[in-house]
Amino acid sequence: MTKTLPKDFIYGGATAAYQAEGAVHTDGKGPVAWDSFLADHYWYTAEPASDFYHMYPEDLKLCEEFGIRGIRISIAWSRIFPQGTGEPNPKGIAFYHRLFAECRRRHVEPFVTLHHFDTPLSLHSAGDFLNRETIDAFVQYAEFCFKEYPEVHCWTTFNEIGPIGDGQYLTGKFPPGIRYDLARVFQSHHNMMTAHARAVLAYKKAGYPGEIGVVHALPAKYPYDPENPADVKAADLEDIIHNRFILDATYLGKYAEHTMQGVNEILAANGGTLDLREEDFVLLEAAKDLNDFLGINYYMSDWMRGCACETEITHNASGARGSSVYRIKGVGERVFDVNVPRTDWDWIIWPQGLYDQIMRIARDYPNYRKIYITENGLGYKDEFIDGTVNDDARIDYIRKHLEVLSDAIRDGADVRGYFLWSLMDVFSWSNGYEKRYGLFYVDFKTQKRYPKKSAYWYKRIAETGQIL
Ligand code: BGP
Q1: 374 Cβ closer than 6 Å to some ligand 1 atom
Q2: How many angstroms separate the CA atoms of 363 and 410, rounded?
Q3: Which residues form the catalytic set?
Q4: Does a structural domain hold residue 335?
Q5: Which domain holds residue 120?
Q6: Which of 27, 31, 209, 246 has an alpha carbon 20 to 30 Å from 254's alpha carbon atom?
Q7: Ligand 1 contact via 159 beta carbon (within 6 Å)
């Protein structure tokens, strides 16, 4: 039987400033660490991306035509404050006013993220969020935006605090490219959650009428052999690294005893200590019930096996299936060959994991209020033929994930919307322009947009609420 979604459910599309806008040096935008990191470590740069800086009227027109009622947009902090702090940049400020006005004109609600991986270079070079001065700078920037943009009703502080710590300090695929440093991973998570709490408290204290929340990536972690205690343990520790630590900070205002035990075991095996201050917990505690929503980004799940191993991680950047290696000392290793479909980049496709993660939030963190799925989608080497892409694999992927959302809502979870990653093709941080996700194909040379088969299919779902 065809499953359905509620009447007022929001069908959206997601973007991020750095991956979509291009124009990285235009109108006074300040530098970010990615500018040189991409040039030094990868085979592409953020120029031209999808030229959203100039093409946004076209993209929002497509939204309106295709029944897309919400768009995730991030503000590039370094367009507003080119040096992270100090004098604001009028041209950067004006750009987002124009963009939000166009959203209104097209009846598309902007869901705005303040930080999507792109800390201004000066702050990033000084330690990014490991340096507590960056927390102060972020809160100033957030307060500035809240005041400057009353036309925004829905704010997200951070996109994916988890993958930021992992990418920057564990896998090294994000700048500054540090590898295997678990203490820095947890410290970054903790400091960013503290910054989140401070921004939420500032927003609520000022009495703004809109909503504020945070977006977490929540991959499910399963034991390879549920009967084997070493595998169960590996899944549990991996879950603490990627999910539980930040969820506890968000909704418990502290780290549960079991979470901290796991963190301490991981640090005992890998070295390093944490600086978790009493004053931070006062902030986390004060903010824990004030999140208006949780954004969940969900792409994949992992199966974990215990191992007596040294840490070794190989990032599959090029889409050569089977080239990923991921094992962490004192934690365990990911098993990629689990008889479940996976993408060319070894992301395991498991819609049930989205259901499991939503229900786990409802069970373990009942003060969550409501959920948006803020990212989900299929990265694919799309073939552009006769002016379109017949992306049946993407349709199948989205359909299965929407179906489990329908199940989760039936089973009592409060899920209000779904934002497909991505609205139009953008580049992937560590996989380049070849990994496409969009509903609209972008010819990066001409910047022309072409609706894919999935766009027409998504439109029918948005119109009918039936998961066809
Ligand atoms: C999320 C990010 C997005 C986007 C997406 C797809 O982690 O929030 O910005 O990039 O993943 O990932 P990738 O580009 O690595 O394929």
Answers
A1: no
A2: 15
A3: 160, 375
A4: no
A5: 10-300+346-464
A6: 209
A7: yes
